[in-house]
Amino acid sequence: MKRLFFVLNIGVFLFLLGTILSACEKDQNLNTKLPLQPISDSKDVITGPEQVKIGFAMDTLEEERWLKDKMLFKESVEALGAEVKIMAANGDDALQVWQAEKMISQGVDLLVIVPHNAESTAAIVKKAHQAGIKVIAYDRLVKNAELDMYVSYDNEQVGVLQAQTITSIVPRGNYVYIGGAVTDNNAYLVKKGVFSVLQPLIDKGKITVVFDDWTKDWLPSNAKENMKLALEVSANQIDAVIAANDATAGAVVEALEEQGLAGQIPVAGQDAELAAVKRIVAGTQTMTVYKPIKALTETAANLAVKLARGEDVKTVKQVNNGRIDVPSILLSPIAVEQSNINDTVIADEFHTKEDVFRGQQ
Ligand code: GAL
């Protein structure tokens, strides 16, 4: 009986000992973890800035610049720790709407759009807002929509720089204006800037605009047809040409070449495309307007990621899009001629010296 009693006690003693020991162990683990956490809110320490996904709905990759916009925007967004999804609609309005809807359904947190058609893309802004997603217009404005933000270069100033350079060389004479696409709000802004400089000279009878038309979809082939018509209706009596971008300026120079006039008639462009900068070195194009794409993509990426993370962003400037005053950031464009190629596009490594001067006399 005594032995049984003794054995039972030992058993109870050992059981209690085991329970106490395991409780001590648990406590120790807790202790080691706990001291780390009280310092600050656990979420910040462990996860860092909120992971967001930005959708970039582009119009086209036809012009050289858009390839740069695509690459540099992706780099800028990823450098901010966010994801980016990019689609390009090749100038097709219905496809651009479909692509935007697709990105919305794939859960992007914010949409950045380069509208092909300034008016029809208002529908995309509406769909995005219905899904609780904000929209930033990139380079080109979306008209008549409750847009959240607009980031671009000062496109009126682009036109002013073009006309100031050309009128300083040709203060009198017959001018041709080769405009951009009527679907693109930038085409109106650039033209407004050009004519803000030309009109006083027109009014004084110093300048006559012998031909002025838009270029459907910014296509060089359409611009060339227009320039051939301009040469025809004016019997080649042309003293200067202002084209809304370098792709159309290249088509103008081709048409002039066919008439043996290339290099004799000053031509203005925009975008600082490599081919255009080479034409400026060769003397068949007079100037272009350089818009550093890196600055534009970094600005847009910063705004997009901030807004996607729900941060508040204030801007100094607003641009009215026919519906509201859109909070906007407009960067300053730069005129480029033979004299400052080195200090601008080459200094910025937008193009290399080798690429620009290769094959030049
Ligand atoms: C405009 C843009 C220009 C030009 C053009 C054609 O909206 O500002 O840089 O390239 O589109 O795509």
UniProtKB/TrEMBL annotation:
Alphabetical keyword list: Signal
GO MF, any single term: carbohydrate binding
Pfam families registered for this protein in UniProt: Peripla_BP_4
Subcellular location: Cell envelope
InterPro entries with a match to the protein in the record: Bact_Solute-Bind_Prot2, Peripla_BP_I, SBP_2_dom
Domain Periplasmic binding protein: 54-311
UniProt entry tagged with the keyword Heme: no
GO cellular component, one term: outer membrane-bounded periplasmic space
Gene3D superfamilies, A to Z: 3.40.50.2300
Family matches, as PROSITE patterns: PROKAR_LIPOPROTEIN
Protein known as: Substrate-binding domain-containing protein
Organism: Aquibacillus salsiterrae
